[in-house]
Amino acid sequence: MTVIVRRVKTALQREYRKAGGILVSEAVAGAEGNLGELSAAGMEQIDLTLERVSALTANPSRRPTPEELRQIHAAINEMLSFCATVRIEGFAETLHAAARLVGALMEADVWLDGSLTPVANLLRLVRRGAVAPENVGVLILGLDQCAARVRSHARTTDTQ
Question: What ranges in the chain are assigned the alpha helix state H?
Answer without folding.
Answer: 11-18, 24-56, 66-82, 91-107, 117-128, 133-159
